[in-house]
Design goal:
9 helices, mainly alpha, 210 residues
């Protein structure tokens, strides 16, 4: 079994345990046992529990970027990539929801996920053909993080099979983001970019990226 397959099995088992027991009672060792994986390799690949969340986010990004659209408006490409991330979250929904419920009492985990999600959003921008480099790229990344968190809030309440409420919320958030001058502009501007909006207080989605 290669490392990617190992990680997928352990992360899946870990999120099953999170759904059953909560974040605090999940252990990497128990997840490895549940998945019938060798403990020594689990120790090497997942030295601390937080790595489970980072690997989960990486897998979400890979699921989105594997079929990244190459044509169409940049906004539509972003929408498609973000919805692919939500499709990945949906396959682990009980565990993700349990983790989100635990975050208010886990400030360190929340900070970790916020930073990782910011990296993920940079990858989503690049995947949509929008630069995430430089001052304007950092502005776009922070703006897209706000969009993502708005989608997460809708996704938590969305019980539809097609995630229609999530799609609607994501569409509205992208529309608001477009109204920020230069946020989705793919040309270099001579004027300084507008001030960076601060994301909402930590409600980090557990799909960070590397």
């Amino acid at each position: 079994m290669d490392n990617d397959a190992f990680d997928r099995k352990l992360v899946e088992a870990a999120f099953t345990l999170i759904a059953e027991r909560g974040w605090r009672r999940m252990s990497v060792a128990e997840a490895a046992r549940q998945a019938d994986l060798p403990l020594d390799q689990a120790r090497a690949r997942f030295p601390v529990r937080a790595v489970v969340l980072l690997r989960f986010g990486l897998q979400a990004d890979q699921a989105a970027l594997a079929l990244a659209p190459k044509e169409g408006p940049h906004r539509d490409r972003l929408f498609d990539l973000l919805m692919r991330r939500f499709d990945f979250l949906q396959t682990h929904r009980p565990g993700v929801l349990a983790l989100l419920r635990a975050l208010p009492a886990e400030p360190c985990v929340t900070a970790l996920l916020t930073a990782a999600n910011r990296r993920s959003m940079a990858w989503m921008l690049e995947g949509a053909g929008i630069s995430a480099r430089g001052p304007l790229g950092r502005l776009r990344t922070r703006g897209l993080l706000v969009v993502w968190l708005a989608g997460v809030r809708a996704w938590r309440q969305d019980t539809s099979t097609d995630l229609s409420a999530t799609m609607a919320a994501l569409d509205r958030a992208l529309t608001r983001a477009e109204q920020v001058e230069g946020w989705l502009a793919c040309r270099r501007r001579s004027a300084a970019p507008p001030p960076e909006p601060e994301p909402n207080p930590p409600e980090a989605a557990p799909a960070p990226a590397g």
